[in-house]
What we know:
This protein has 239 residues and is of the alpha+beta class. 43% of the residues lie in helices and 18% in strands. The protein has eight helices and nine strands.
Amino acid sequence: MNPHRLTLHLTTICIVLFSVSTVSAQKRKIPPGGRIAVVVDDRLSALRVTPELTGKLLRRVGRGKLVAIRSVKTVSDGTVFYLVNINSRTHGWIQREAVVLVSHAGDDQRLLSLIKAATDFDRITKARIFLDYFPRSPLRPEVLLLLGDAADQAAVKLSRDADRKIDGSLAAPESSYFLNYIGLDRYNRQRVVFLFDKKSRRFRYDGAAWRELLQRFPRTPQAVEARKRFALEVPVLQR
């Protein structure tokens, strides 16, 4: 292998290893055999036996899953497919647009476009992928603001849904039932934390993304917006 390509490949592996170490709770395994990419669009993430949209389906690859790209093929209609390893035993062809490469220039911008087009929880999961795998991207402040705002909006719906589920027969403090609400689980897996305001009986986003904005990127326009978000928050919240 060309020394420059080898260095780039090893650098990519190191970046992914660092990213995975920060999200150990998700237990993402790095597949062997090629350039590392991460699935970001599960609408297109069919793994097929052959590089064609009508090819036999092997499985659907979940969003956030790491794959190793072995080769590339463009078919007659212009669709580009990657031959990828899912693990040491499973491989197949996946459409290029289903993944982003952590070492490819411009893929952070492409993922940002997907984040902006997404809504609700889908926006949060795509933003988390960005933050995990593009730690040095200049677009990070924008993604942090998008994640924080999406979480803040989710708190409104979660509060309403939890309130409907909690009746008057309580064997523990009411806040325990709210903070154990099953609807919070998938957000917790994305490391999005909600606090509970006892007085208003509602969830509030803990503001982690906004705090990172202010700490790491204080001179950006997004940091200005984050300060506005904090100004609207109730200062004392109960965990």
